[in-house]
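Postdoc handover notes: sequence design on the structure in folder B. Input tokens:
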């Protein structure tokens, strides 16, 4: 794609999600003949849209396409479709980030190790100067575990790659299995209808599903009931895929060992949520993709995509 006017609006309250001067230098040196314009704020972005043929942005509303006659492509770092809406006319192409897996899979592994290696016990013991060496006999090892990943897009596949390197046996769950009947990092690929059969065997269940009507409540109370006694659940996708009351019931009944949760039905998680105080829950504030490498990975992916457009 030949870009004449590039408009950038990559400011974000999360600093690691914001473009820095080094990123702008890289972009300018990669496109020496392109006019590269950085919007000062959202109003400035809207005003400058009329000139732009390509934008890099965190937010784009569908009504903005009308005033952007030259626009050909919108790129956003976000994996989810929550903040950048597609052009209803289909004229402008929209590209969402696919690079997050390399960061988020490490967040996932850290959560798994937290439960497998009983790190909450270590932290508690350390606080009280207790040498609790006799309390680790039931620690588990990822190399001897079965992990079911529901949502096997770029994120789930990247997680599967790292888990396989750890020695885990991965089951991939996809809504549409066409072309995914086999995968190099999964011992088995199944669709959602077969999940109830596989859940009793999985030591860890990872949910990395997109938001939206299609996934609303897709992981039901029956799915929680079918999980193996002592299994852990991780949600790094979106908080709409189960009812939090079902998760809380499963945690309170003792059937689940723990849950590592990065996303919630309401964010920020309200102070009144019982999840905050459950002892077997590890909460992170929708931060599993936050990392210093974030914008570097986005720009690399964008440069590669633009080269091939
Ligand atoms: C995303 C996110 O990129 O949830 O969609 O951070």
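Designed sequence:
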């Amino acid at each position: 794609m030949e870009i004449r006017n590039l408009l950038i609006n990559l400011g974000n309250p999360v600093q690691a999600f914001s473009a820095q001067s080094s990123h702008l230098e890289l972009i300018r040196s990669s496109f020496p003949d392109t006019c590269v314009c950085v919007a000062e704020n959202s109003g400035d972005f809207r005003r400058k849209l009329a000139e732009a043929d390509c934008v890099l942005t965190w937010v784009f509303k569908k009504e903005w396409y009308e005033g952007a006659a030259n626009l050909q492509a919108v790129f956003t770092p976000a994996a989810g479709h929550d903040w950048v809406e597609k052009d209803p006319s289909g004229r402008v192409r929209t590209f969402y980030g696919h690079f997050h897996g390399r960061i988020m899979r490490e967040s996932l592994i850290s959560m798994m190790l937290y439960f497998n290696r009983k790190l909450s016990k270590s932290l508690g013991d350390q606080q009280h100067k207790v040498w609790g060496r006799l309390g680790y006999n039931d620690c588990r090892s990822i190399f001897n575990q079965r992990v079911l990943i529901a949502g096997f897009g770029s994120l789930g596949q990247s997680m599967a790659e790292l888990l396989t390197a750890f020695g885990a046996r991965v089951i991939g769950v996809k809504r549409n299995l066409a072309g995914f009947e086999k995968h190099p990092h999964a011992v088995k690929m199944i669709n959602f209808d077969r999940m109830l059969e596989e859940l009793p065997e999985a030591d860890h269940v990872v949910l990395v599903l997109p938001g939206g009507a299609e996934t609303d409540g897709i992981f039901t109370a029956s799915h929680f009931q079918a999980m193996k006694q002592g299994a852990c659940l991780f949600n790094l996708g979106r908080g709409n895929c189960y009812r939090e009351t079902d998760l809380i019931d499963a945690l309170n009944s003792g059937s689940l060992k723990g849950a590592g949760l990065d996303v919630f039905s309401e964010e920020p998680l309200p102070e009144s949520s019982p999840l905050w105080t459950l002892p077997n829950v590890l909460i992170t504030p929708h931060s599993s993709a936050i990392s210093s490498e974030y914008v570097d990975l986005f720009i690399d992916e964008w440069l590669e995509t633009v080269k091939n457009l």
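Context for whoever picks this up: Residues 78-80, 100, 289 surround oxalic acid (CB under 6 Å). Don't rerun without checking with the PI first.
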